[in-house]
User: Fold this.
Amino acid sequence: MRGNQIKMPELYAGLIEEVLKTNPKANQQLIKKAYDFAKEVHTGQVRRSGEPYIVHPVETAKILAGFRADSATICAALLHDCVEDGCVSLDSVRKNFGTEIVNLVEGVTKITGVQFDSKEEYKAENLRKILLATAKDIRVMLIKLADRLHNMMTLNYFREDKQKRIAKETLEIFAPIAHKLGMWKMKGELEDLTLKHLDPEAYNLLRDKIAAKRQEREARAKSLIDTINNKLKERGIETEIDGRAKYFFSIYQKMKKEGKDFNEIYDLIAIRIVTSTIPECYAALGILHELYKPMPGRFKDYISVPKANGYQSLHTSVMSEFGRIMEVQIRTKDMHHMAEEGIAAHWRYKGEERDKKFDRRMSWLKQLLDWKRDSKTAQEFIESLKIDLFENEIVVFTPKGDPISLPVGSTPIDFAYAVHTNIGSQCSQAEVNNIVVPLDYKLKNGDIVNIITKRNAKPSRNWLNFVKTSKARSKIKSELNISIDTREKEDGKEKEDVSKSIEILSKKAPLKFSKCCNPGYGDPIIAFYTKDGKITVHRKDCRTLGSLPNKRMAAVRWKEKPKGSSKTRIVVQDRVGILAEILNLIALKKVNIHSIYTRAKKERVVITLKMVMPDDLQFRDLAKDIRDIDGVIDVKKAD
Assistant:
């Protein structure tokens, strides 16, 4: 509907009807108040489609209603653009709707009043803000995803270059986030809409071909469903069975991955069997395999070993009576709600059980935010986020049976840091399925991992050669005092520079560093003469030391780096007391300041300090602590 075709009473009636379908006890009075408030704020505003602006927040709220959202989330969805596009203050929203709702609105509101060096930096900071708010309340991201879904539905009103930019961002960031949250329906709809704008030719081809044979396909599906349903009823198993058409994007991906034409893709419809209990799931699987021949290698048990995003179901593919491969999913009702709604379904749980499930499902976000503290630029953040979001995952278990999600290719060290930083730091040995394995062993889905720690154990620099997760890499570097910006280079120049920091106390000889443990400046070290008269330097905890005779030991030590004066530039938001906090922190670190200069730049202040810094390691430690101060935007050397 456009412009004057929209009738406001009908718009609200349609919204509340959708809300009451999934939440009969919704606070209708509060929702009506939020609707009226938003309608007033957006009066006179129209979208590019020509519709009154209020249509967008209403449609966003209706999408969330489909995910069984609570009243506060519905209200926040209605109000989510009031501050950003309606010039209403957060205080006004708080006064009218309370703290819970204003926090949700603030979480999805873009940053204002701060100047950024580029659009990329601005986008990155807004995404950072949303993720931080999401870590506190998942509903922030649910509102953002619903907002993005409706924007994608109306994307055709923008110019082509903007359509592609928004669609690409949706495919690279928001669809993967929906996947991480287990929101299969949201993910599928977002991906289909991105395909429509990124490859319209392929999208239109799929749409037309699928539509051309829809009647034939639906008749075939109905016949299969009736056969399966009758057989299950004979065995006393009551189920709900339906045929679900696959999303365009998943068909498109399969065609590209397998190099197949559309006509070669058989499983365009997936049959879903929903039972009441887990034993009935396995019973239904057995009956299905009696009816139809199962395809080798196509069975997956995601009930016993759920996917990393919490998804549970039995998957199998069978040869149907029509000579076509049929994909079948079997799950319980609770599993079905989790599969469709993902993290949104956690509202269905109560008390402690809900909190445990929620914490496990949000662990990936906490890991992202941990690593992101070390990101130096907006581009670095965005690129690392894309990598982490697209990472294929496995689920492994602690000895107590708690699931831990990790990227494919992860090792026991990654597992140890995912459980707890101290377990990672003090890891000395690992057992997988009760068998001792090397620390660089590649974990597999369903492995049971036990980490053996020692109080005096420390991370090895060599771990950086094989760890997979951002969290493990970041923590290891932090504990070894290695710059997060420095990648492990194998070129001779870096090794030569480090070797100049070694002082040889015996007989002089050519010096090299052992590749088995890669000692870095400041690490406890030990050295040995080689047979050809050279000196090889190892970390003291290197595992190869047992095979080296004491008589070949060489006396070496690190040279003390000379103290020098260094300029540091700190960019902060202009607020009372922030300079005093920074100077107090520097004083506590016993770092001497030679000079200080401040310069105001709009709502920012640039502080330039000249300090005596013993070495780069202390600077990195100091810079990290300064960044933790509220209002600090950036810290870097100015020399």
The chain has a mean pLDDT of 79. The radius of gyration is 29 Å. The chain has five domains: 3-193, 207-343, 394-487, 492-558, 564-637. Residues 62 and 328 are 30 Å apart (CA to CA).
